[in-house]
Amino acid sequence: MRTVKTKTLEIAYFEHGSPDGWPVVLSHGFPYDIHAYDEVAPRLAEVGARVIVPYLRGFGPTRFRSSSTMRSGQQAALGKDVIDLLDALGIEKAILAGYDWGGLASCVASALWPDRVAGLVSYAGYDVIDVNRLGRAYQPSLEQAVWYQHLFQHERGRECLALHRRDLCRILWKQWSPTWAFDDATFDRTAASFDNPDFVDVVIHSYRFDFGNAAGDPALADLETRLAEKPPITVPAITIDGTQDPLKPGGTADHAPMFKARHEHRAVGCGHNLPWEAPHEFADAITTVQGWCGFAS
């Protein structure tokens, strides 16, 4: 494990492969961590990638550098963290790949800073949050699946996450990946990342901001305004759906118009935690995008 300092964070990350390889950043989701890529990263390193796998803000050893910094979990913060990480590592351009919060971060970075992104692999399509849309109801079957988001809007939700974070997150793992047979050791290895002192604040702010129930970081207001305009993604991209994911009923193939460069949509027979459940398919999507753009450094 290594760390690097940005203006806001000291980001902990693992690096695989040659430092001269083509850079790819793999961003994890909630409630997961870098171990989601334990099988993806070596596959990419074997074919010449320099693989950077960071802990997101609020997870694992990543820390805020100042106690006065807002513990924001909003999408602009997550996307900017990726670009700040590239800056700190001296990487001009990289392929970005992720799912859940990591897919959100990768899509935001690709939409707002396309000159820094060689290509994109996004689980669940154009994964930029429409805050205005989240103020209106969805079908009851989907509202049921996102029960945790509703819980987090209340102080009892903050208390539940603070006191029972492992139990709550394990329930989400089971519900979102109904056919994935993970063992206790696998969960416990990742659950240690939830002990980050900022985990609860970042998670709660993330979902309250998404629902319009918490103000964002004023320093990120301009970025959020741009995201509200639904900027298209103009870099080569592959989007992927898990056909057994209860959070994405019907999939996201209809997001295709948001991708203006070469784009392909794939469906994989798995749940929400695609890099862990289907590492070969996730790695293949990344190498395919790398081949499309001829990205070498």
UniProtKB/TrEMBL annotation:
Keyword Hydrolase tagged: yes
Source taxon at top rank: Bacteria
Keywords: Hydrolase
Residues in the signal sequence: none
GO molecular function terms listed in the Swiss-Prot or TrEMBL record: hydrolase activity
Species per Swiss-Prot/TrEMBL record: Rhizobium changzhiense
AB hydrolase-1 domain ranges (all copies): 23-279
Matches recorded under Gene3D superfamilies: alpha/beta hydrolase (3.40.50.1820)
SUPFAM superfamilies (alphabetical): alpha/beta-Hydrolases
PANTHER family in UniProt: EPOXIDE HYDROLASE
A UniProt-annotated Pfam family: Abhydrolase_1
Protein name, UniProt field: Alpha/beta hydrolase
Classification of source organism: Bacteria, Pseudomonadati, Pseudomonadota, Alphaproteobacteria, Hyphomicrobiales
